[in-house]
């Protein structure tokens, strides 16, 4: 018989951190790593539809880095023997990918709205969820020490998703939707 997925240990509104401590399910720490988990789920959805192998490979690396970030944030801070650090090599890889994609894009002269193609819209969803994850990590960092590299990664990741939206839009011949004020 397979192990059961439910443990019933969270039925009273608490959950366990890696290392054993129990915290409320509305704890800022859970908001931070839960938002990263949500982001990773949306990212999997985008990755499933991307046909460009180079982009798909980087999206897979990003997913692993998001999981690592979530694991770090989910670790009991009172267990220093379990402390992990975030590998910022992915942040540098994102910067290179942004620079590469921007070489092929026209200058941005207007604000653009999400839309034009489902993959473009999904990139914008990823961008905004990434920004929310970043805000949650910053909130957590105001209460306890967090790895600054996670915040830097999330900041760069939201930029990446914005540029990826434009890049995929160009590949897919999707017209950018220009924001017009007053409508």
Description:
This protein is mainly α and 183 residues long. 58% of the residues lie in helices and 5% in strands. The chain has five helices and four strands; from the N terminus they run ββαααβααβ. A hairpin with a 5-residue loop joins strand 1 and strand 2. The radius of gyration is 18 Å and the shape is elongated.
Strand portion: 5-15%
**Biggest β-sheet: strands ordered side by side in the sheet:** 1-2
Q: Please report the total strand number as a whole number.
A: 4
Helix content: 55-70%
Order of helices and strands: EEHHHEHHE
Second rung of CATH, namely the architecture: Up-down Bundle
CATH superfamily: Cobalamin adenosyltransferase-like
CA-CA gap between termini: 60 Å
On the 0 to 100 scale, the average pLDDT is 91
Rg from Cα: 18 Å
Instruction: Find the structural class using helix and strand composition.
Output: mainly alpha
Name of the CATH first level: Mainly Alpha
Biggest sheet architecture: 2 strands, antiparallel
Give me the number of helical elements.
5
CATH topology: Hypothetical Protein Ta1238, Chain: A
Which regions have little confidence, pLDDT < 50, spanning 5+ residues? Answer: none
Q: Tell me the count of domains.
A: 1
Q: Indicate the overall shape.
A: elongated
